Structure prediction request, 89 residues.
Amino acid sequence: MFTPLCWAVTVSFEKVDSAISDADMILLESDLRARVNPFMEALMETPLFQELPAGKAGMAFPAGKNTIAGYSDANCLLDRVEEFLASNA
Prediction:
């Protein structure tokens, strides 16, 4: 039986620490105008998120949609990552 690979995982607030505690940068799901969705807003307001190293360092950025549907979506995300890295080097 074929089992497709899963490239995205949804975790509850309680598991965020164990999932991304070693991240230098957090890319947040947002619309293409860099507005985060209500889930991301609620997550960023939790003490758990604010205690993450990337959260403390201000290294959480809206990155656009999480679903990459083609080359233009991928290029948009890569451009944003490059911009974030350059502005925080």
